[in-house]
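Deliverable D2.4 — example input (structure tokens):
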């Protein structure tokens, strides 16, 4: 097992203890002198290399097991990191090289080489090594699996990105379509309102004029006058209904006096129809602001939809509409004291969807804040509207 080592104690007990220690190690262990010759090797190391210990002792370990790279290219002895341990007097640990067996096959090896010192003088090196072929195969399989996973992830990411682009394009197309439909709808409402005003309004006015003329001619005929008065009352009711329909279709005050006057009229109309108390707060600096025709129509329709929902579902006693400036942004909020609601993560009703789409079309954001039993506040923020 051991060569003649003058550097070690010749005491038989010491030699026996050292031999037991080396043989108990699971890794291969061998020592070399300053010329690279093997001075000891344990059984595990000799078995890994395909030799018996006696066949290895005294042989140059570089030329025996470390002579070539994994690709069979020769490794010069001056590049041998095992020998550098005693040449440079410092240890090293390596796991990216191979060692060669007796039968000419190589195995991936992990080894460490450290100098043997006698006092302060380096007299050789001790090397521990093990076969890590299985670990390398496992690592290669893991790397291959990881590369395959990354490839699949990249492919899936590309597919998802393409799908997201298609969804965004579809969403943008739907938003443009929604904005176009709103524009067409408003134009059609304005057209219908003009037709009703010009045709039906004029006809009802002419009918009332004729009934008033007839009433004057039939003075004293009580029964006829009663029927004429009933017809005049029906005509007046019809004129009121026409005005209300015209206002819902396209409030004239919005075109002539602007958004804020139209919102005030909207609140007054809502209050006159029931017991809902309506308040409007708009500071002068906001009241002087004009948003443009399309934006003012969108804001009016949003507030109109909110008031309709309050009247139908909230059971509120009062509602407050506030417009204020937040730096250069315009914030319009409608707040009621009704029954409140659970706010959905995404709008589901057509009313909420329509309000969100109108807000998006004019570059704004719509926020809904509500707690069951504590009322609801709908806020519309228009960035840079007051700039």
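Example output (designed residues):
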């Amino acid at each position: 097992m051991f060569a003649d080592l003058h550097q070690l104690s010749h005491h038989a007990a010491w030699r026996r203890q050292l031999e037991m220690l080396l043989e108990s190690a699971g890794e291969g262990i061998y020592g070399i002198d300053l010329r690279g010759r093997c001075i000891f090797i344990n059984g595990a190391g000799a078995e890994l290399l395909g030799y018996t210990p006696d066949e290895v002792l005294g042989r140059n370990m570089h030329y025996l097991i470390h002579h070539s790279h994994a690709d069979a290219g020769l490794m010069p002895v001056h590049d041998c990191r095992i020998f550098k341990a005693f040449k440079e007097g410092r240890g090293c640990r390596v796991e990216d090289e191979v060692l060669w067996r007796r039968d000419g096959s190589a195995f991936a090896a992990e080894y460490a080489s450290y100098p043997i010192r006698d006092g302060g003088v380096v007299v050789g090196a001790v090397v521990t090594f093990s076969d890590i072929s299985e670990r390398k195969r496992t690592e290669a399989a893991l790397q291959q699996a990881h590369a395959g996973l990354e490839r699949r992830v990249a492919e899936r990411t590309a597919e998802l990105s393409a799908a997201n682009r298609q969804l965004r394009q579809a969403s943008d197309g739907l938003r443009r379509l929604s904005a176009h439909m709103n524009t067409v709808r408003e134009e059609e409402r304005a057209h219908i309102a003009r037709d009703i005003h010009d045709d039906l309004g004029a006809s009802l006015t002419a009918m009332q004029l004729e009934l008033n003329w007839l009433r004057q001619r039939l003075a004293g005929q009580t029964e006829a006058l009663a029927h004429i008065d009933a017809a005049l009352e029906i005509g007046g009711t019809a004129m009121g209904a026409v005005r209300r329909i015209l206002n819902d279709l396209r409030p004239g005050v919005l075109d002539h006096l602007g958004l804020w006057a139209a919102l005030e009229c909207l609140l007054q109309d809502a209050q006159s129809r029931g017991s809902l108390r309506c308040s409007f707060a708009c500071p002068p600096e906001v009241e002087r602001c004009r948003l443009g025709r399309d934006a003012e129509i969108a804001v009016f329709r949003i507030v109109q939809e909110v008031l309709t929902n309050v009247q139908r579902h909230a059971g509120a006693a009062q509602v407050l509409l506030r417009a204020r400036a937040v730096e250069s942004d315009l914030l319009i909020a409608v707040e009621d004291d009704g029954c409140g609601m659970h706010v959905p993560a995404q709008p589901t009703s057509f009313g909420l969807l329509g309000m969100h789409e109108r807000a998006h079309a004019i570059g704004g954001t719509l926020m809904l804040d509500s707690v069951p039993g504590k009322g609801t506040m709908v806020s519309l923020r228009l960035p840079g509207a007051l700039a």
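The chain has a mean pLDDT of 84.
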